[in-house]
Design goal:
The protein has 367 residues and is an alpha/beta fold. It folds into 3 domains: 2-131, Globin-like, CATH 1.10.490; 138-225, Translation factors (Elongation Factor Tu (Ef-tu), domain 3), CATH 2.40.30; 241-360, Rossmann fold (3-Layer(aba) Sandwich). The chain has helices at residues 2-12, 16-30, 46-57, 63-76, 84-102, 108-131, 208-216, 251-261, 285-294, 318-324, 339-352, and strands spanning 138-147, 152-159, 171-174, 183-185, 196-202, 222-225, 241-247, 270-276, 298-304, 314-315, 331-336, 359-360. The strands form 2 sheets. The protein has a 6-stranded antiparallel β-sheet with strand order 4-3-6-1-2-5. A 6-stranded parallel β-sheet has the order 10-9-8-7-11-12, with helices on both faces. The mean pLDDT is 89.
């Protein structure tokens, strides 16, 4: 099934944009009520759901990663008002789009592979959603907004009731200036009794949501927040030391994990590498270094690709620097950052000899 799916997707991947347009056209015609689940402007959204579907289908040979993720995804989709019939409509549109663009290559084994894979995925999501009894989403009020650098802002949200996330997980958010454009953000703090969550947001080029958050968020704004997702966490029970590698705003989930660890009296030795193109991208390095001063089990190393002033950082990419130290075979490894950074770092570590089952990262990011 996996081989057929991957090979057939390769045949149409170059036409992904057109395939996405066909997908949504069929979906909205077949199930008109689904249109209200999406933003008015579909330019940014158009390929997101399709990419997500294809990515998940391609994970069907990794059940240990896929099944827990699908459970989270099903619970998360409750915030959209998704009902059982919507899963059927999405499947119909996906198969219709693939059939149209594969043409003569849409033979019975290909149709069966995609149909079976999507059926398994939809059933897992639907079952988890129906079993969930907690809120579909939470409302939170902006209580703090501050620029940490020219393109990064810290936003603090206080919710009416604490959201049951774990340090290292991520949450979907909807802001008042970009309704129905949900984005995933990682809290930079462990859960607190007062319900305050701190997010670090970088304004990316062409990022409708991120640029609005950084430039226009105001105290008193109301955000809607979806259920927690992801499985990033420090393994304090493995008996191994910890290695954490963070690029850009991947610093936020690492900071949350360290915040949670600092509340325990005994922790494994933990090495943290924080990287960026230059020192400006290490926007919150000072607070991590301060945390290392008060926690002897923690060591924090800055990494920059351009170190013009020789200010004491390791030089190179995170993948370069981390593997320069060896294979880290006696460490549990967490990697957080952009998809490209995660791919590069994990690939280099595997080549260097790091055991795959000791590396953890969230393989599914949509932004």
């Amino acid at each position: 099934m996996v081989t057929i799916i991957r090979n057939s997707w390769t045949e149409v991947e170059a036409q992904a944009d057109d395939l996405a347009k066909h997908f949504y056209a069929v979906l909205f015609q077949h199930a008109p009520t689904t249109r209200e689940l999406f933003p008015a402007n579909m330019q940014i959204q158009r390929s997101r759901l399709l990419r997500a579907l294809v990515h998940v289908v391609q994970m069907v040979d990794r059940p240990n990663d896929l099944i827990p993720f699908l459970g989270q995804l099903g619970r998360d989709h409750r915030k959209f008002g998704v009902i059982a019939q919507h899963y059927d409509a999405v499947g119909y549109a996906l198969l219709s789009a693939l059939e149209h663009y594969l043409g003569n290559a849409w033979i019975p084994p290909v149709a069966k592979a995609w149909t079976d894979a999507y059926g398994l995925i939809a059933e897992a999501m639907r079952t988890s959603a129906e079993a969930e009894r907690g809120p579909a989403s939470w409302l939170g009020r902006v209580v703090g907004h501050r620029r940490l650098s020219w393109d990064v802002a810290m936003v603090q949200i206080q919710t009416g009731q604490p959201i049951p996330y774990q340090a290292g997980q991520y949450l979907s958010v909807e802001t008042p200036r970009r309704p129905r454009l949900w984005r995933y953000l990682s809290p930079a703090n462990a859960p607190r009794q007062d319900g305050v969550i701190e997010f670090h947001v970088r304004a990316v080029e062409g990022g409708w949501v991120s640029r609005a958050i950084v430039a226009h968020t105001q105290r008193g704004d109301t955000w809607r927040i979806g259920p927690p997702m992801g499985r990033m966490a420090a393994n304090r029970q493995s008996g191994r030391s910890q290695l954490m590698v963070a690029g850009g705003t991947g610093m936020a989930p690492i900071k949350a994990i360290l915040d949670e660890m600092s509340q325990h009296p005994d922790n494994p030795r933990t090495e943290v590498f924080v990287g960026g193109k230059n020192w400006d991208e290490l926007y919150d390095f000072g607070s991590l270094r301060q945390l290392s001063y008060t926690n002897p089990w923690l060591s924090v190393v800055p990494v920059v690709e351009q170190d013009d002033d020789g200010a004491g950082a390791e030089s190179g990419t995170l993948a370069d620097v981390v593997t320069r130290y060896g294979a880290w075979k006696d460490h549990d490894v967490l990697v957080c950052g952009s998809p490209a950074m995660v791919r590069a770092t994990v690939s280099r570590m595997l080549v260097a000899g790091t055991p795959l089952d000791q590396i953890r990262y969230d393989p599914f990011t949509m932004d």
